[in-house]
Give the backbone structure.
Amino acid sequence: SSSKQATISDDEIERQLRALGVD
Amino acid sequence: MANNNLQKAIDLASKAAQEDKNQNYEEALRLYQAAVQYFLHVVKYEAQGDKAKQSIRAKCAEYLDRAEKLKEYLKKKEKAPPA
């Protein structure tokens, strides 16, 4: 099973955050 | 240690979960985003142990995932023609 715990990187978090904010 | 950003992030995250439970999805989405922004700030600019950073990042991933789902749901709901 893909270990969910593979922690995300700061950049990835930032990217997803931006993606969210963009309508 | 300026823990107020961390405290702020935690507050926002718990409010987001509350709104989520109350099905105020727009508000929950906004709060999840704000919480992640604060958590990210803490990870990037406030020295935390590596362990703490890892767990904060994992939390961010969770909240982002949830926020994305809420956003999808809200978009679909908007598109749905008024019954």
Q: What stands out?
A: Chain A has a mean pLDDT of 82.
